[in-house]
Design goal:
By secondary structure, this protein is an all-alpha fold. It has twelve helices and no strands. The chain starts with a helix and ends with a helix.
């Protein structure tokens, strides 16, 4: 975890400082900054810096990669490995693409309601992503611990990790939901001082709370079947949640019930509720023994032998003891 923590923390700090200086012109007298066009350049440079930092410190200097990387060789690229990689990569990539298309579709519906509603919708997604910073970190930790448990072949550790991670997510989301319901106007002030924006946040606090909580819960639950190698199940569940749940739910709620943010958030929350139920069903139905077996087969690691005793057994001595007269 240390390389990812160091690289991500450095990237976050550089991204913040770079945008404050180059975009807003802070710390430089009489210079207004380069404005928003500099944002993608700063972010791109920071991403490449993180890659360089990972290679230079942890690969070139500390040589942390040597224990798990045998070096460059075309013999390592086999048809079976490429097919296995594509079977896991393509569903994950399409799932991410589906999420972006779904958000674009819902944003288009929000734009038809009104400019203030669209502004609040866009701001609310930023709040969701801020919350996702914490839940995403928790989900990442759950994924790492699950991978370690599967690598060890321990179904008990895998089950315990999934349960502990889910309970921690529920506790955090209860606190987060309470904040969204209790201080909606304070959240609105992060983005705007317009009273209309604050009123809209307060008006739709309950469906927005459901939206934030269920979205983050789905992200946390998603990591468990992903770590277990059930990428196809995650992909189909994501498609169902997006295109059978959220988008139709938003259309139905804004067309036949309330054509405002209250109806829009209700439709989105209903879609995420469907997604949470689907992910929960996948997790409950996991055969952890089979998951461990598949994980070890994918990693091509030899299965560790498990004995009844930790003491070495000398077969020759044992045979002599059994054949000697009493």
């Amino acid at each position: 975890m240390r390389p990812s923590v160091v690289c991500s923390s450095s990237g976050m700090l550089l991204n913040l400082v770079g945008n404050l200086i180059l975009v807003l012109g802070l710390a430089i007298p009489n210079w207004p900054g380069l404005g928003f066009p500099a944002c993608p350049w700063v972010t791109t440079c920071v991403e490449f810096f993180q890659l360089f930092l990972l290679w230079f410190i942890f690969c070139h200097c500390l040589q942390l990669h040597k224990d798990c990387w045998p070096g460059w060789s075309r013999d390592h690229i086999t048809r079976e490995r490429v097919v296995q990689f594509l079977r896991m990569y393509l569903p994950a990539a399409l799932s991410i693409g589906s999420d972006f298309w779904r958000v674009s579709a819902i944003g288009a519906i929000a734009s038809e309601i009104g400019p203030d509603d669209l502004a609040v919708f866009n701001a609310s997604y930023r709040i969701c992503w801020m919350a996702l910073t914490f839940l995403g970190a928790l989900a990442g930790a759950v994924g790492v611990q699950l991978n370690i448990a599967l690598g060890k072949g321990s179904t008990a550790d895998a089950k315990r990790t999934a349960k502990v991670g889910t309970v921690m997510a529920v506790v955090f989301l209860l606190v987060l939901g309470a904040l969204v319901v209790c201080i909606p106007r304070s959240l609105a002030k992060i983005f705007s001082n317009d009273p209309k924006v604050a009123d809209l946040f307060a008006y739709c606090r309950w469906p927005f709370c459901a939206f934030v909580v269920l979205m983050n819960m789905s992200v946390n639950l998603e990591r468990i079947p992903m770590a277990a190698g059930r990428v196809n199940a995650v992909f189909y569940a994501g498609l169902a949640g997006s295109w059978l749940g959220q988008v139709p739910g938003v259309i139905l709620c804004t067309t036949f019930w309330r054509k405002d943010l209250f109806g829009l958030y209700t439709g989105v929350a209903a879609g995420y509720a469907l997604l949470v139920v689907l992910y929960a069903g996948i997790v409950i139905c996991l055969d952890w023994d089979k998951v461990v077996e598949e994980a070890q087969r994918r990693s091509e690691a030899p299965k560790p032998a498990v004995g009844q005793s930790l003491q070495p057994v000398n077969d020759d001595n044992e045979r002599e003891d059994n054949t000697s007269p009493a």
